[in-house]
Amino acid sequence: MEPHTPPAPDKKFLKQIFLHHLTRIYNGKRFLRERTPHLIELASFEALKLAVKEFGGDVKKQIERMEDIYKLIGETPSPEVCNPIRSIVKDEFCLDDDQDVSLLNDLDLMLYLQILEHINITSYRMLIMIAKLLKYDEVKQLLTENFDESADNDQLFTLIAKEYITPD
Questions:
Q1: d(Cα 31, Cα 149) in Å, to the nearest integer?
Q2: Rounded to 10 degrees, what is the CA torsion of 68, 74, 76, 82?
Q3: CA 11 to CA 104: how far, in whole Å?
Q4: Rounded to whole angstroms, what are the CA distances from 56 to 30, 32, 53, 60, 72?
Q5: I want to staple 56 with a disulfide (CB 3.0 to 4.6 A). Which of 19, 20, 36, 71 is the partner?
Q6: What angle in degrees, to the nearest 10, is found between the helix axes of 84-91 and 11-42?
């Protein structure tokens, strides 16, 4: 059996794909926003607490942008059915397990948040491609802003992790 490229989806199907993925990330972000105060409490290092607070503020802005996107395309978010981001957020890498060394907990927290950001980066990248095909120029700009924030947060947590593990 020869592998072949499936036919390109038509505009109606592209919009369906777009809405499917937008709704997944939107509902995941809403759930994450609810969990952010708990994540802040888990951080033991002040710079990490501030970074998680900034992350929470960015999550809020990204949700607002996605709500604007729904308005721009004349849609409303559908109820959550299956949300992989929610599953990851609920698991939280066992962050509530007490560690003997707070450094381990903080590094787990940063790894956890970076994994979530990598999911967001990938999702936004795909949504931007589809928005371009659908000629959703304003939507593409809002998604690019969300993408940039997620990438910046990933870099921020990388820098903080470096502070933890790099000798003076």
A1: 18
A2: -100
A3: 48
A4: 11, 8, 5, 6, 24
A5: 36
A6: 10
Distance between CA atoms of residues 26 and 39, nearest Å: 19
| 31-82 pLDDT per residue, tens | 889 889 988 998 988 989 999 999 999 999 999 999 999 999 999 988 776 6
Reported pTM: 0.86
Name the DSSP letter for residue 9: P
CA 69 to chain centre: 16
The four Cα atoms 20, 25, 27, 33 give a dihedral, to 10 degrees, of -170
